[in-house]
Amino acid sequence: MGPLLLHEIILLSESFIKVIDLYIDEPTLVWLLKFGCADIRIITDRDNPYLTDKFRDVLEKAIQGGRKIEVRSVNTAHAHDRIWITRNHAWGFSNSIKELKNRGKTSLVFYLDKETRKGIEEEFEFVWQDAEPM
């Protein structure tokens, strides 16, 4: 059920998806690039142990291939929840997206109403400005 749900969310992403996931990993990045939309922005933890050379290689190849994707890192004090934001929708996740995608830990996925989505997107943009580009 996990990968199907995420695929459905990505199909609703329209022109962009903004992701907050402090522990995003390389397989999830590949998956987002495979099914993702035109513009992908990701905020992750500065000390995310999954930001490996392989992760960076996949990111660089995607950018060189013309994909519009950017990953920035923050101190964990700036973010905790895992969120996907699209033009008209937003979802929260109780665990890292990789757990849901890989059917790891039991995870809660919750839809956020439009007012909450707007507030979270404003917060995303605020944090994005201070986040360090990779």
Tell me what you see in this structure.
Strand 2 (39-45), helix 3 (53-64) and strand 3 (68-74) form a beta-alpha-beta unit. The chain has helices at residues 2-11, 26-35, 53-64, 97-101, 114-130, and strands spanning 16-20, 39-45, 68-74, 82-85, 90-93, 109-111, 132-133. The termini are far apart. A seven-stranded mixed sheet has the order 6-5-4-1-2-3-7, with helices on both faces. The model has no long low-confidence stretch (mean pLDDT 84). The chain has 134 residues and is α/β, with parallel strands linked by helices. It has a single domain (2-133), classed as Endonuclease Chain A (Endonuclease, Chain A).
Count of DSSP strands: 7
Major β-sheet annotation: 7 strands, mixed
**Taking Cα atoms only, what radius of gyration do you get, to the nearest Å?**
14 Å
What do we call the CATH homologous superfamily?
A: Endonuclease Chain A
Structural class: alpha/beta
CATH class: Alpha Beta
Beta-strand percentage range: 15-25%
The dominant shape is globular
Order of helices and strands: HEHEHEEEHEHE
Adjacency order of strands in the biggest sheet: 6-5-4-1-2-3-7
Q: Helical stretch count?
A: 5
CA(first)-CA(last) distance: 32 Å
CATH-defined topology: Endonuclease, Chain A
Q: How many independent structural domains?
A: 1
Helical percent range? 40-55%
CATH architecture assignment: 2-Layer Sandwich
Mean pLDDT: 84
Q: Which regions contain 5 or more consecutive residues with pLDDT less than 50?
A: none
